[in-house]
């Protein structure tokens, strides 16, 4: 078997667990699930542009290719890859300990600490470094090989693993992939790599029916900070202030569902189009917002992301001021 070997660093606390809810534990299936997610996000545009298909046919083709590479989600189908971690990664630090008196990160970490009936979660702390080997079976094509490489990069440049990873917890840095270094000493170099990774054919005006990279994707970078938690607090403070200012605005539902409060949608679910990520740049850390708009929810035939875009624009302006 051929293989891909990647080294990752955990940049912000990773809240993730298995059967034992009294500790945090990172296992290979969680990495595989994250790679599946970013593979789907990256490959919608390719199938949308390559094939003369309607959106239902694009989704069917995408699911067929995903099953061929990763197997069925319930592992009933055989995968063409096998993922191994080089060591056991566990943590026992609680959300209450990590987020105590840290209102800005608490706002981003709802459900990670004790509040009412919610029980606290446990985390693997930042700066843990681990390696993964992805063993490739002979049936893996050159195209699938490159798709895996791009998915690993995207996970380790803009993504994370675990609970509240869309709000910056569990952010990952890919430090190397098959011996090639991906640690950045300049924000310009990092931004250039991200831009190249997200570069797609912009000829299609179709809107994805799920979270996928399209021509409407935007990336915004905040100010660099000495510590990762400071970068995380910065984006948390800006997000909390904006959401509080617009707390009675009906368009706030497009930040994600369910949404509590009188008159709002508490039953339906739709993940946020915003991804927060913290990334090391030299000896500093930069907060990043990845905005991936897509069709919102079947209940809402039309959607209005204008308030979400107002926040993205406000954060960019504040960061550049």
* Number of H- or I-type helical stretches: 8
Report how far the terminal alpha carbons are from each other. 51 Å
**Tally of DSSP β-strands:** 13
Order of helices and strands: EEEHHEEEHHEEHEEHEHEEH
Question: Sheet with the most strands?
Answer: 5 strands, antiparallel
**Structural domains: how many:** 1
- Give start-end ranges of low-pLDDT stretches: none
Strand order of the largest sheet: 4-8-1-9-10
Taken as a percent bin, the fraction of beta residues is 15-25%
Helix vs. strand class: alpha+beta
Instruction: Return the average pLDDT rounded to an integer.
Output: 89
Helix content: 25-40%
* Shape label: globular
What is the radius of gyration? 19 Å
Written account of the structure:
With 321 residues, this protein is of the alpha+beta class. The protein has one domain (2-201, 213-320). It is 35% helix and 20% strand. The protein contains eight helices and 13 strands. It has helices at residues 28-50, 55-70, 95-99, 103-108, 142-158, 187-197, 228-245, 306-320; strands at 2-10, 14-15, 24-26, 81-85, 89-91, 93-94, 122-124, 129-136, 172-177, 180-181, 218-221, 274-281, 284-291. The strands form four sheets. The chain has a five-stranded antiparallel sheet with strand order 4-8-1-9-10, covered by helices on one side. A three-stranded antiparallel sheet has the order 2-7-6. α1 (28-50) packs antiparallel against α2 (55-70) and α1 crosses α5 (142-158). It is globular, with a radius of gyration of 19 Å. 36% of the residues are buried.
């Amino acid at each position: 078997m051929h293989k891909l070997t990647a080294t990752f660093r955990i940049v912000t606390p990773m809240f993730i667990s298995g059967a034992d809810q009294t500790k945090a534990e990172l296992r290979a299936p969680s990495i595989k699930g994250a790679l599946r997610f970013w593979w789907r996000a990256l490959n919608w545009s390719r199938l949308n542009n390559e094939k003369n298909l309607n959106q239902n046919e694009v989704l069917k083709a995408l699911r067929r290719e995903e099953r061929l590479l990763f197997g069925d989600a319930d592992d009933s189908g055989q995968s063409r890859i096998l993922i191994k971690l080089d060591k056991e990664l566990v943590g026992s630090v609680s959300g209450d300990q990590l987020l105590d008196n840290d209102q800005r990160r608490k706002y981003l970490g709802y459900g990670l600490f004790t509040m009412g009936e919610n029980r606290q979660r446990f985390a693997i702390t930042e700066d843990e470094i681990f390696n993964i080997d992805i063993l490739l079976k002979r049936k893996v094509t050159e195209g699938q090989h490159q798709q895996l490489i791009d998915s690993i990069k995207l996970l380790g440049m803009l993504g994370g693993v675990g609970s509240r990873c869309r709000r910056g917890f569990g952010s990952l840095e890919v430090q190397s992939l098959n011996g090639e270094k991906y640690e950045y000493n300049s924000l310009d170099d990092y931004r250039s790599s991200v831009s190249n990774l997200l570069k797609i054919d912009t000829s299609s005006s179709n809107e994805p029916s799920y979270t996928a990279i399209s021509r409407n994707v935007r990336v915004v970078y905040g100010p660099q900070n000495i510590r990762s938690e400071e970068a995380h607090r910065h984006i948390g403070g800006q997000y909390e202030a904006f959401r509080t200012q617009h707390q009675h605005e009906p368009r706030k539902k497009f930040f994600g569902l369910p949404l509590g409060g009188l008159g709002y949608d508490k039953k339906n679910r739709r993940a946020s189009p915003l991804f927060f990520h913290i990334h090391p740049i030299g000896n500093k850390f930069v907060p990043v917002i990845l905005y991936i708009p897509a069709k919102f929810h079947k209940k809402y035939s039309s959607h209005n992301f204008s308030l979400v875009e107002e926040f993205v624009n406000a954060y960019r302006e504040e960061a550049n001021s």
